[in-house]
Design goal:
single chain, about 425 residues
Amino acid sequence: MDTDGNSGDASRVVHVRFITKLDRPFKVPNSSISVASNFTRFGLSSVVNNLIQTENPDWEVEPFDFLINGELVRMSLENFLLAKGISAETILEIEYIRAVVPRKEEEPSLHDDWVSAVDGSSPRFFLTGCYDGLGRVWKAAGVCTHILEGHSEPVSSVSIINPEGADSVTVATASKDRTLRLWKFNAEDTRRNPLKISAFKILRGHRASVQSVAAQTSGNMICSGSWDCTINLWQTNDPVSEGDTVSTKKRKTTGHAKESQSEGEAVSSLVGHTQCVSSVKWPERETIYSASWDHSIRRWNAETGKDSLNIFCGKALNCLDIGGESSALVAAGGSDPILKIWDPRKPGTSAPVYQFSSHTSWVTACKWHEKSWFHLISASHDGKVMLWDLRTAWPLFVIDAHKDKALCADWWRGDTVLSGGADSKLCMTSGASVL
């Protein structure tokens, strides 16, 4: 792996030409130059910065990453060329890109118990779930605008149903109390003291703890995975729609919103897993993915209820996400330290196309970047959150902000990593731009 410098004497030089897809002022002259063969990416980054400063004296030093034949360089040039069987006798084309390095660690958002779930899919706010039974809406680090009150046991999963919708948004929470709840609130609310709100709808039907919830892209339905081994599908209609009204006492306490509640039943169930359904995703209108402690990943047709893909992983799975190239790659992690990625479009799908093994304990969460084919994050019981690029086997960056297990992670606003843990903190690391 990289060192922080380029130790030792350069025994020889390599003739290179730096190329980039970045716009000015990032471009450097197209002519070839000679660099020491023992240069790592840090030395190469210094060279590129010096070349840019020659044309632009006011240039501020920027960290860069380097690609040779589409693979990130994570060792000295000499070792890389030897490992890949590339001749050093010709002019070597090296593409440089902006390094994905988080720039700032914000103050953590404190909770009263383990932070078990986070959703950053809306640029206007992010949503957390906690073992104290509450959901929370945050405008920024430490700025909580709404508290979702009603679950009797820990909140295990949260999902923003219409992140780009009107001022009034809908979110879903899943809990170990065997229910899911739907909530509405004004996303533009700027109050200083958080408003406590009740769910407008309670979804009952699971016979055990609900472990995961995901929204259909249209926002009309959600699906949930449970310890009862089933996946249930639910409508997300408004409070005035069908459903048995539940009488609720109107709270007079200041800071509480008054809501009527209704109850909903599952539209259908997907049956096939034999142990806890730990994670569900609904990336396309008719397609649901699920991961289970029965060591399998399944792809379901939401209309027919049939599964069209069954990947056996050999380990109990905790997390799942769909993204990467053409939003087709499946990332998952579980009861070992290895983050695995499959491409269902390729024959022999049971074999992962990528495996990342830098964690030292169970992988609890994984999340693709929405706009990048290469980048994703993972969280683990080792307390670390790692940022990955498919073009190298080593993590781009390790976020070591938690003092206990990291339980959940997500992207927010494209360049911020959110993570929650058993230290009762929601940590935010910003400035990690991948574009």
